[in-house]
Amino acid sequence: MHIAFLLFPNVTQLDLTGPAQFLSRLPDAKVDLVWDNRDPVPTDAGFSILPTATFADVPRADILCVPGGIEVAKVIDHAPALDWVRQVGAEAQWVTSVCTGALILGAAGLLQGYKATTHWAWHDLLELFGAEPVHARHVIDRNRATGGGVTAGIDFALALMAEIAGEDHARAVQLALEYDPAPPFDTGAPDKAGAALVATYLTRANRLAPGRRAELIAAAERLGFNVPPGME
Asked: What pTM does this model have?
């Protein structure tokens, strides 16, 4: 079971490493982290990850997984990356994403007509690419599997594992990795966090990456997608 993750500069590392840790426990799994070259790739956490392969090295895979990050618009505008996602996704048994990686899948034309999810703050942008947004921790629609924001990637990975190797196998991996979340706060979703905390987060996010929403919409327009009226 060859699993290929797209690795790119300023990726949200847990979008990638969380699912990679779980999916590596699939039977006969081989995991590749794929980018333009094999130089260390910086993540949003301040450390770098080494790619295991280049785009040319991995022309196909059984599972394609695309994580998210603050620079997904740059990935969408990077033709070699988007072409690779499109190529591998066309033949993969499973085409998947975590967080805003769904927007990269969408930009590659791989979510048109599919139900999908992504990080709550970017959820409405899914319709830019012809996807049907669903508010859920993970969504499986035929051979498309998408996870919500960051930590939802672990739930996504377990659900995908159950589809591939059976629920018993997925349950055993959950036990082995002691995935038994009991967070100290119940503020992990906007409907639980309250309006004030949501506003604080959005302000901070806009300050850290100003214009990111506009960049994504502009990237979609350059690829020929129609921007729905009122989307800004």
From this structure: 0.96
- The reply to whether 58 falls in a domain is yes
State yes or no: is 65 an active-site residue: no
Number of domains present in the structure of the chain: 1
Residue with tokens 């018993």: 168
Q: Which residue has the higher pLDDT, 212 or 88?
A: 88
Domain at 58, CATH number: 3.40.50.880
Taking only the tens place, the pLDDT of each residue in 51-89 is 999 999 999 999 999 999 999 999 999 999 999 999 999
Q: What is the spatial distance between Cα 55 and Cα 36, in angstroms, rounded to a whole number? A: 6
User: How many whole angstroms separate alpha carbon 28 and alpha carbon 82?
Assistant: 28
| 230 located within any domain | no
Domain containing 25 equals 2-222
Of 99, 144, 140, 105, the C-alpha closest to 123 is 99
Active-site annotation holder among 99, 108, 159, 173: 99
- Amino acid occupying residue 131: A
User: Which tokens is 46 given?
Assistant: 């301040």
